[in-house]
């Protein structure tokens, strides 16, 4: 939101050094300016000649803005993302979203439409709820409970796997790129924002050639070691980033700081974070890193670290470990999440018009991506050929 401020806005905000982004008056002022910005061009016409009216500003990304919009023909509400044509990742995002639609993906944000208007390219997609970063920061503890963390882990892993199954890697896995659905899908978690993603396989299933040198891609806080070394990224790197995400969601913090307030050059900051990520691979530091997180994450971390670039990630084994922990912790899919206030409110919000709860919808989505677990339980729990009897026993505090 800070990027939306201009000199006039700054003068109107007294005590800028005490700027509070949660101040409602400031929010209204910024939203008012956003409304003025879109007022001159409130309607977007797609390639299919459908007209979308911008309703309200939702947020700003690395390359453009996102708005809530309404299709004039159907009166349905969607999200519209627009980026300047001179600096845009939207064509890449459209390609991924269309592939996901063709494959009937259940946890990838749905493609609706796209087009060009003046100096902007835009894409219309399903509107989502709050992202995991916002939900975590709304907690007093700044982290999710064990109950919620386990289910969030399963759903986010399922979403990443679904993305990989359509031959796409995200290269920017982070909490703010996962969000809740709305209405009857409000208990499902979706992955979105594919500006940095790439296809890693050809249509015939063969792997695309690997570049020996690349550039840094992703978010410093969650980037894999290979990203820091500016190497080509693969599926294992998405999972490494996901592991960092899960530690943060379940503990509230990561041992490296990447705050925008830090007066350090980007390269210096990345180097410090890289060294911190190397340190957590030492025995004592690793124990400290996983001390308050889910008890399986240390083991999952070693599994991911042991993967080669082209290896098939052990989704089933990781999933099995989460489900085993779920049973031991007596976690049920219809338990309330940390962000749901009461079961009464939940029942009102999650019942769809045809009587199917969003819990059932989330379970159906999750089950669709799930293999037969009892077959998995008798196979390897790691990237090697170890016996399933070596799976560690987990203790819930």
TrEMBL record:
Stretches the record annotates as Disordered: 1-26
Q: Which UniProt keywords apply?
A: ATP-binding, Nucleotide-binding
Instruction: Cite the InterPro entries for this sequence.
Output: CK1_Ser-Thr_kinase (IPR050235), Kinase-like_dom_sf (IPR011009), Prot_kinase_dom (IPR000719), Protein_kinase_ATP_BS (IPR017441)
Which positions fall inside the Protein kinase domain?
A: 52-397
What residue spans carry the Polar residues bias annotation?
Answer: 15-25
SMART domains attached here? Answer: S_TKc (SM00220)
What's the protein here called? Protein kinase domain-containing protein
